[in-house]
């Protein structure tokens, strides 16, 4: 099992790989990501529908239905991880490359825009595939209509900020799940690590931009059957501003800024005193010929960066090396 520092390096490599992908690869992987999330949402709706009860034209869902539906939804993220697709949320980790100055922020914005558009495109294609396949029954469409109305109400009646803060929590869960999965090298471990947080996300109903895009595209494909009451043909425009926009901003803030930045600071920054001690202690290893141990904290694994940092210590702080020799000679005299 990796500690958080080792797993941070895994996340850093994951993010930098994302930042280096060609635009057409991002487009294809993002399209596939949209397809997989749409399939997961299809399963979510189908299971929810099985536990639905219609009374006087109104749809109600039994409590166990929400649990069962939430248990199905993680399939989408698992497909993304194991089949090599991309969703906007996971690609937010590319910001780690920007923090390390390995990629430019402008380039990341372009890549995020491409993957977001590709997620939308994948969801749109699947929405019409479901429509042409007559994949939805009457209960399914009532469930979808209820979800759309609920999101519009939360955004307008419950105010815009509720969607926004829900989205911040959502991407902490999603990026946290993807990040945590890097600590495991076997498939079963990754499945368990991802499934539990995404199950939590689905049962809590937090807002996730690829899922909301799937809901939006299905609403477009099935209009006017699932048109939200009181909104008519305007529901699509209202949904963009009041649901998709705050979801996008909230997801980006937590997935690209909060988690990556906090862990970057936690792993990479030391106090000036600790830096001095680390450089001084590293010279003992250099002096004894064990240069790769330099700059390794207790319990840390050896890494290639240790040698580079130790060499810098000799070049930039020669007086420390002299001081080390003096101290060692005094000990010998005693």
Question: Rg from C-alpha positions?
Answer: 25 Å
General form: globular
CATH architecture of the largest domain: Up-down Bundle
Which stretches are low in confidence, meaning pLDDT under 50 for 5 or more residues running? 282-303
The CATH superfamily name of the largest domain is Glycerol uptake facilitator protein
Report the top-level CATH class of the largest domain: Mainly Alpha
Beta-strand content bin: under 5%
Structural class of the helix and strand makeup?
mainly alpha
- What strand order characterises the main sheet? 1-2
Q: How many strands in all?
A: 2
> Domains counted in the coordinates: how many?
2
Total helical segments: 15
Biggest beta sheet summary: 2 strands, antiparallel
Name the average pLDDT: 83
Q: What helical percentage do the residues reach?
A: over 70%
Order of helices and strands: HHEEHHHHHHHHHHHHH
Amino-to-carboxy terminus distance: 45 Å
Could you please say which CATH topology of the largest domain applies here? Glycerol uptake facilitator protein
Membrane topology: Multi-pass membrane protein
Subcellular location: Membrane
Family: Belongs to the FNT transporter (TC 1.A.16) family.
GO molecular function, one term: formate transmembrane transporter activity
